[in-house]
Automatic annotation (TrEMBL):
UniProt KW keywords: Apoptosis, Cell adhesion, Cell junction, Cell membrane, Cytoplasm, Membrane, Transmembrane, Transmembrane helix
Membrane topology, record value: Multi-pass membrane protein
Listed name of the protein: p53 apoptosis effector related to PMP-22
Organism, scientific name: Ardeotis kori
Compartments it resides in: Cell junction, Desmosome; Cell membrane; Cytoplasm
Keyword presence, Iron-sulfur: no
Lineage: Eukaryota, Metazoa, Chordata, Craniata, Vertebrata
GO BP of this protein: apoptotic process; cell-cell adhesion
UniProt entry tagged with the keyword Iron: no
Length: 189
């Protein structure tokens, strides 16, 4: 943003916009039924963060079991949900921070730190789920962790990357606010 001379007034909403996209990806991960799916025929297993569903054969009725009956299921859901709530809080704080005409750069660095904490909780939930699911739940055939689980990891990666951006942005305070004289590389003979 600074190196290439992009105007601060035009680019100030990029980071909150990226946080908003992270929130949308987190909602998809929380609501999606594709955390685990059967990879090959017959498609007999499908799971979300909240429940595991199976059917006896192709075209049969799905029977679902709640994962909240397992301690690891509650732990995975709780840690991922805490990470998501912290992400939503960071999104709201970023909108507030960038809506004010004079940026408070220490406030922005705090948002970056909170994003790292959110990423830590999200990653804990994303690691607990597959490790315990594959050992505790009986699976038949070939199964894969699917699209909704991928959205969860995308959210966690976005939290880490945006945390770095929010923490490093105050280092360029003078350049962003236009307090530095431009350097010209042309000198008269």
């Amino acid at each position: 943003m600074v190196k290439y001379g992009l105007d601060y007034t035009r680019c100030r909403w990029i980071l909150p916009l990226l946080l908003g996209i992270g929130v949308i990806f987190g909602i998809i991960a929380l609501a999606g039924r594709g955390w685990l799916e059967s990879q090959t025929l017959p498609y007999v297993h499908q799971a979300s963060l909240w429940e595991s569903c199976r059917r006896p054969e192709q075209g049969g009725e799905w029977t679902c079991e709640s994962l909240m009956g397992y301690a690891w299921g509650r732990a995975a859901a709780a840690t991922y949900l805490v990470g998501f709530i912290l992400l939503v809080i960071c999104f709201a704080l970023a909108i507030i921070a960038f809506a004010i005409d004079t940026l408070r750069f220490n406030f922005i660095r705090g948002i970056g730190g909170l994003l790292f904490v959110a990423a830590m909780f999200s990653i804990m939930g994303l690691v607990i789920y597959p490790v315990k699911f594959s050992t505790e739940i009986e699976m038949t055939g070939i199964n894969m962790f699917s699209w909704a689980y991928g959205f969860g990891w995308t959210t966690a990666i976005m939290e880490i990357c945006l945390g770095f951006f929010f923490c490093c942005l105050p280092n360029y305070e003078d350049q962003i606010l236009g307090n530095v004289k431009p350097t010209y590389f042309y000198s008269s003979p």
